[in-house]
Structure formats: structure tokens, C-alpha cells
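Handoff note, outgoing to incoming analyst
You'll be picking up this chain. Sequence as last confirmed:
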Amino acid sequence: IWLLYLIYRLVNIHQITTNFPLDYDNDLASYMAYIFFLLQCGFNNLCSYWYNGFYPFYHYSPAYFILTLPIYYLTKNILISVFISMVSLFVIALLISFSLGKNQNFSFSKKILFFSLAFANPFIISSYVKLGRLPEFLGFLGILLIFSVMLKYLEKPLDKKFYITFLPSYVLLMLSHPQMTLLGHLLILGFLIIKNNKERIKIILASIVGLILSSFWLINYLKYNLLGG
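Most recent structure output, in case you need it:
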């Protein structure tokens, strides 16, 4: 039932491809505005479209908007691009769910059950389809990617493949959504607790590299939100 309802809601929400979401009960309109700001003003430039001007990405994580740009360049339409990105996030969530299920030797029905519980439940549909909190959705996927990496190395020593999979997932987590970033670090903390000192150092060093790769955005974000600009 949840899967059928998710499909119905995705079909129903396709109306945003032709009608801008003007209802008051959504976050999607503001995220569409951020894509517009990124296109018109650039990444770290002053944008004069709100009030006396502001720096959009000094105050919000940029990953979703940057990753949606290639879709915009193909469609030349922000509305269509956002809808495609929403569907794409659910497709990626399905692929991650099947990958996790494969690693845990789940049957096909259990893989579908996992996806339904994680991504087709009423809370997800309300938050990520109705309200359109797509940057948060991307952050949730970042947490799930890190979880899948840690699950693989739960009782296995860290190797080169750990860094290849952990680093992109960690950078995505850092750049996706502030609250999801905090939740993801609680997961990493739990992983640190169960590992030995040598592997803890490796995880911390990998995280530091991830922070450096995220610093093109993170420095200004911390400066203007924690230090007052």
C-alpha cells in the first residue's frame, strides 16, 4: 500500500513541471528559488533578489542545488529539473536499498520491505514529496551510504576500498543538509567506538580529508552562522 501511494504521489506531484508550487504548505518553492539564485548570481556572490541582497550559500548547504544544475542544463526549466531530481532521489534510494539488501543476503521481498519502511512511509512522503524537502532527502541518502559502508566494515579491517566509498559519502553528507550532517556524525561516532585505536585514527583522518574537500563551502558557512560574519 505504501509503495502504491508513493507512486501515486509522485505521479500527482508532476504538476509542478507546469505550475509553480504557490501553496503555503511547502518548502519546495524556496529551494527552486535557490536554484535560480545559483544560476543568476553564482555560488559565492552577493544576490540582490531578496531584501538588500544576501549570500544564499553562506546560510544553506549547496549539494542538492549543485547536483540539480546538470539536469537544468539539459531541460532549461527549473520546474522540470526539480521534479526529475525528486524522482531520481527515490530511484537512488531504491538502488541503495537493494545494494544493502544484497550485502545482507536479503530476499527480493525483504529488499522491497526495507525500501518501503525507509522511503515510502507516510513521514517520508509528507516531508520529501508534499513539502519537497529535497536537500534533507539527499542528506538522508548520505547517511544511508555511510551506514552501508560501515556495515560492510563492521567486522572487517579497513582497506583502500573503505576510503574510496567513505570519502564521497562523507563529503555528500557535509554538503547536503545541516541536521542530517549532525545525525550522520552520531553514526560515525558509534563506528569509532567499536573500532580499535589504529582504525579510529584512519577514520578520523578520512573525515579530516572530507572536511578539507568541503571547505570551499564550509568555511563561509561557519563564519557567518557561528562567528557572526
